[in-house]
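Exercise: predict the fold of this chain.
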Amino acid sequence: MQHRQHPSRYEQASRSVFMSSIVGLSNIIAALVTFFTVPVAYSTSIAFVQRFTARHYGYGFEDITAVVWWLIVALLIFFGARASISTALVMGGLALAARFL
């Protein structure tokens, strides 16, 4: 039975720099994706959401529904994009490491 050695401080620091770079790059790309896609997704869906709200909760909630729906759309797009991009970057890094190491 082999015992796994603890990674050296250099290996830990390298991993930390790599992961913080992945997080930073993912955040920037997700912010760009959010900036360009929220207006399209919001304008396509807001009429349906306001009609649904009026039918099921009554009239008078249109303004608050618009604000809350914009926030929900923006957060869904941002966090979905960030999770996808982070996963793709990590898998890409692992694939490159496996290929060249």
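Check your answer against the key: The CA atoms of residues 76 and 83 lie 11 Å apart.
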